[in-house]
Amino acid sequence: MASVSATPSSDAEMDALYAEAEQVFWRSMELRYAYELRGDFAPFPDEMSELLADRYLEAAKAQYDFYVEKQWHSPEGAEPVVAVARYPGAAKSGSEVALVACIDTRPTPALNSDGQIVSEGNVHRWEMFFKHFDGKLKLFDGTSKEMSECWVG
Dihedral through CA 111, CA 115, CA 117, CA 122, nearest 10? Predict the structure, then answer.
């Protein structure tokens, strides 16, 4: 379970840690878009293990396997609407920094190999937790909750 403290840090070290976490998040999303949106089912990206760890990496691999099995993709050029923000004071399992995101996948319906819509998309609020593994900041745990609407900031 995540916890939130009332004393967010805003010093330069925390700013740098948040910036690094955002870079990790956005790069992992770029890699996911290759298979989730564009149906590029090349082998699971090795780079993911440089960005993700523990159960988050395991979940990403399982999701990749699901997309490969189903051969799902999204309409060409479609991308979800993503807003991400710092989540000061939130912690889980020894995390060093946390982000919160709202992900709206309704603009990216999932299509099967025949081009038929198999999932219309939805809105989720993600809480993401990062810490260092072997000197690299990685996204290692998180929660996701489907919502009718979502805001961050």
Answer: 30
- Is the pLDDT assigned to residue 10 strictly greater than 80? no
CB contact at 8 A, 94 and 144: no
Q: Which one-letter amino acid corresponds to residue 45?
A: P
Q: How far is CA 96 from CA 100, 131, 132, in A?
A: 14, 5, 8
Q: For the domain bounded by 11-147, which CATH number is listed?
A: 3.10.450
- pLDDT tens, 73-116? 999 999 999 999 999 999 999 999 999 999 999 999 999 999 99
Q: pTM for this one?
A: 0.89
Where do the structural domains in the chain lie, given as residue ranges? 11-147
φ and ψ at residue 68, rounded to 5 degrees: -65, -45
Tell me the longest C-alpha to C-alpha distance in the chain: 52
Exposure letters 34-50 (e unless 16+ CB within 10 A, then b):
ebbbebeeeebbeebee
